[in-house]
Amino acid sequence: MKDYHKILVFAFLTILFFIYTFSLYAMNADFSSIGGDSADRGKRIWQEKNCTGCHQIYGLGGFLGPDLTNTYSERGNAYIKAFLKSGTKTMPDFKLTSHEIEDLTEYLKSIDQSGIGRPSQLKINYDGTIAQPEK
Ligand code: HEC
């Protein structure tokens, strides 16, 4: 290959790279769900306060506290809010505002609707994917 052919290929690939990068960023700029509803904000608080350090979701996470995937349907809205408001001897009080408590509870509600948190009850399909059992 002649030298100027190499330069042409290089220039072509460089231009493609910039077009691709630009379009990716332009696409992500209007991701409307970021910052969206109460459950989205709750997820962000969940990450900021590192609840995962002690709690599991879908069986993944720290093991100091219980799995919270289905706490919403098992314990209820008021129970979760009371827990988040004051903590217990082993669960820290994060001094959350009532808005933060509302958002975290909405997040736990959306997690509850998405599946179950007992890995031992998951059925493994023949192709290695996982089937959620009926709740
Ligand atoms: C330092 C570890 C730790 C962190 C961090 C933590 N928790 Fe907990 N959490 C616990 C423990 C331990 C319990 C069980 C306490 C008890 O029963 O007295 C618990 C219990 C709970 C419960 C009640 C669950 C049930 O089934 O009774 C909820 C809801 C909860 N935590 C939510 C959260 C949220 C939301 C966060 C983040 C803002 C969080 N926790 C951060 C340790 C933690």
Q: How does the SSE layout of this entry go?
A:
Layout: H1 3-29, H2 38-48, E1 56-57, E2 60-61, H3 71-75, H4 77-86, H5 98-114, E3 123-124, E4 130-131
Antiparallel strand pairs: 1-2, 3-4
Helix pairs in contact: 2-5, 4-5
Heme C (HEC) is lined by residues 49-51, 53-55, 64-66, 68, 71, 75, 80, 83-84, 88, 90-92, 94, 104.
Features:
single chain, Cytochrome Bc1 Complex, Chain D, domain 2, 135 residues, 6% strand, binds heme C, mainly alpha, 5 helices
Give a short overview.
The chain is mostly helical. The chain has helices spanning 3-29, 38-48, 71-75, 77-86, 98-114; strands at residues 56-57, 60-61, 123-124, 130-131.
Structural class: mainly alpha
Percent of residues in β-strands: 5-15%
Bound molecules: heme C
Order of helices and strands, N to C?
A: HHEEHHHEE
**Widest sheet: strand order?**
1-2
Number of strands: 4
The geometry reads as elongated
Describe the structure.
By secondary structure, the protein is mainly alpha-helical. It folds into two domains: 1-30; 38-119, Cytochrome Bc1 Complex, Chain D, domain 2, CATH 1.10.760. 52% of the residues lie in helices and 6% in strands. Strand 1 and strand 2 form a beta hairpin. The N and C termini lie far apart (63 Å). The structure holds heme C. Heme C (HEC) is lined by residues 49-51, 53-55, 64-66, 68, 71, 75, 80, 83-84, 88, 90-92, 94, 104.
